[in-house]
Amino acid sequence: MSYLELQHVSKTIKQIPVLEDVNLSLVQGKIYGFVGENGSGKTMLFRAILGFIKTSGTISIAGQKVKLNQKLPVNTGTIIETPHFMASSTGWENLKYLASLNHLASDEDILAAMKVFGLDQKRNLKVKQYSLGMRQQLAIIQSFMEGQELLILDEPTNGLDDKSVDRFIKLMKDLRDQGKTILISSHERALIEKIADETFEMAAGHCKALK
Ligand SMILES: Nc1ncnc2c1ncn2[C@@H]1O[C@H](COP(=O)(O)OP(=O)(O)OP(=O)(O)O)[C@@H](O)[C@H]1O
């Protein structure tokens, strides 16, 4: 049965179609990759799935409709464009604050998630002292530390070095093996080839399956 379903999803901004009749039927427990050139609609598609923009057509997750700017049907971890954190607080304080919104991640969960990237060693540094890659690691950590069952990650490896990308790939496959459903967009086809069980290509708002 389909877990995440899009039926005839379209979006036009200022007379320009940015999503054109997108139809998707995704099952639980897989990694789905989305490739496409700059401006092809990857971010728009993810924003639509998250209920951040109004579209025509229907989007449903776990059998429930996604509604504009409302809580999603399932706990969903996201990275959409440049992640924002409180720069004058430490990495740890930022994650503790985010965890306090849902009360789902314990201190142990947060620490275990930080350890995936070795960021636990830097947890008491202020985010403004973090490198670009460390900030991206923090964004990845917040997206899965609560055991979120759906992950929607837009260009999640931006700024990561090779070792961190390898850790990210292993992490995603481990989460997939635990039954999580993961959508990843990237303009790097090589990453998507390594990580995705199924791949879609976005081009001028159209979305087509590649394998
Ligand atoms: N706020 C906006 N107003 C008008 N058009 C927009 C807006 N945001 C995005 N677009 C347009 O929507 C289209 C899809 O953009 P989108 O950000 O989804 O592309 P993308 O595939 O994620 O690109 P990138 O790889 O550069 O992140 C582009 O033509 C873009 O110009």
UniProtKB/TrEMBL annotation:
Keywords: ATP-binding, Nucleotide-binding, Transport. It comes from Lactobacillus corticis. This is ABC transporter ATP-binding protein. Gene3D superfamilies: P-loop containing nucleotide triphosphate hydrolases. InterPro entries: AAA+_ATPase, ABC_transporter-like_ATP-bd, ABC_Transporter_VariousFunc, P-loop_NTPase. One of its GO terms (molecular function) is ATP hydrolysis activity. Residues 4-210 form the ABC transporter domain.
